[in-house]
Design goal:
The chain is an alpha+beta fold. Helices cover about 30% and strands about 35% of the residues.
């Protein structure tokens, strides 16, 4: 699934769109003891407009974000297509629909058993259909050539018990303390997934798209235990792993100029291919070449190439995950942030056995905490 496919699906996921429809919706509430309290399966057309609007917002948020960060596509291992395994359960539910009580019960029980979630939660599953019209060479829609893409969209929303304190009671005409609890279902899901993925404008049943509201904190129990997939590093984890690779392989040759150069070259590469359907990734050969161009020795560059290749196992990191918009230098009690186009104003020096950070002040005006500083 690429950015173009995702954008097309997002574009049509609207209540007024006549090409993409939600046919059925399953909802249930599961408490902190993994006990299912209630569940319903309804035709979406029968749901009141006010509730329908909230459900659309909830499901749409599962498709929110960019590929590789909030949204990560996972391949299913071969073994999870076996009987009563995750891919098999999803496929059967997709084929037979949410009205099939046996398949639905199997899948919901699978989630209850395997998902780790600290709060009570509401589970929403939408059974959807998108009518895909083929396009001619000019990109125009062919009204006489179409196929249907059927998919399931799942959202996991936290449920919080809330006491709002003081309220105005109309019957008593007084401000009194609220004594009852409300269980509020958040309309912003923390997790969710799309199956099958929409790839090449059609279904790919061998992949699933996982959504995390907090890209830095995905729920690995959903990825590994519910969906049966192998967890892929988050954007921040890719960045930290990449730093660790360079630090170990390059070591003492990682000076300020090299670090700034590596960041700039990867950033330029990411921008150059930003509009490509597939997000640009950094290969092991690219790591070697960027380091060589940044002044690293052949031996260190090749060592970094090999270590990176062994670390990622051909699942190359996304270029956009490895860069910083600013260069930040930190030492005990001191932090200096430098914009990308000003790194050439910073140098390091060894004077009388002490290390110094030197900043070239081309502009004579320098402010500190908003005050204009006088340089004597």
């Amino acid at each position: 699934m690429n950015k173009k496919d995702l954008a097309e699906l997002k574009k049509h996921f609207l209540p007024a769109d006549d090409l993409l429809t939600i046919r059925k919706v399953f909802t249930c509430f599961i408490d902190s003891e993994k006990t299912r309290k209630c569940q319903t399966t309804r035709s979406f057309a029968e749901i009141p407009d006010e509730e329908m609007s909230v459900l659309y917002q909830t499901f749409a948020k599962v498709l929110k974000g960019s590929l590789g960060k909030g949204l990560v596509e996972y391949p299913f291992p071969n073994e999870v297509y076996e009987e009563d395994q995750s891919q098999n359960l999803l496929w059967n539910l997709l084929e037979k629909g949410l009205d099939d009580e046996e398949q639905l019960e199997k899948f919901i029980s699978h989630i209850e058993k395997n998902m780790i979630y600290t709060l009570p939660y509401a589970l929403f599953i939408a059974q959807c259909t998108y009518t895909v019209f083929e396009k001619d060479k000019l990109g125009e829609k062919n009204k006489f050539d179409s196929h249907e893409y059927h998919f399931l969209l799942c959202a996991v929303c936290p449920v919080e018990s809330r006491v709002d304190g003081l309220i105005y009671d109309e019957e008593e005409n007084n401000i009194i303390r609220k004594l009852t609890f409300d269980r509020v279902v958040a309309d912003a899901p923390t997790d969710g997934f799309l199956f099958p993925t929409f790839t090449g404008r059609g279904p790919d049943v061998n992949h699933v798209l996982y959504y995390a509201k907090k890209a830095k904190d995905p729920n690995t129990s959903i990825i590994e235990d519910v969906l049966g997939c192998k967890f892929i590093l988050s954007a921040d984890e890719e960045k930290e792993t990449f730093r660790a690779v360079l630090d170990k392989a390059v070591g003492e040759e990682l000076n300020l100029n090299v670090i700034a150069s590596v960041n700039e070259k990867i950033q330029d590469y990411a921008k150059t291919f930003a509009n490509e359907p597939e997000p640009p990734v950094v290969s092991d050969i690219m790591v070697r070449d960027i380091l060589l161009d940044s002044g690293i020795s052949q031996e260190k560059a090749e060592a970094a190439q090999q270590l990176y290749k062994e670390t990622v196992e051909d699942n190359y990191f996304m270029a956009s995950n490895l860069t910083e918009n600013k260069t930040t230098l930190s030492s005990s009690g001191v932090t200096v942030s430098i914009s990308g186009d000003a790194t050439d104003k910073i140098t390091t020096r060894m004077i009388d056995g002490r290390k110094f950070l030197m900043i070239s002040l081309d502009d004579p005006e320098v402010t500190v905490n908003g005050f204009q500083m006088k340089i004597q």
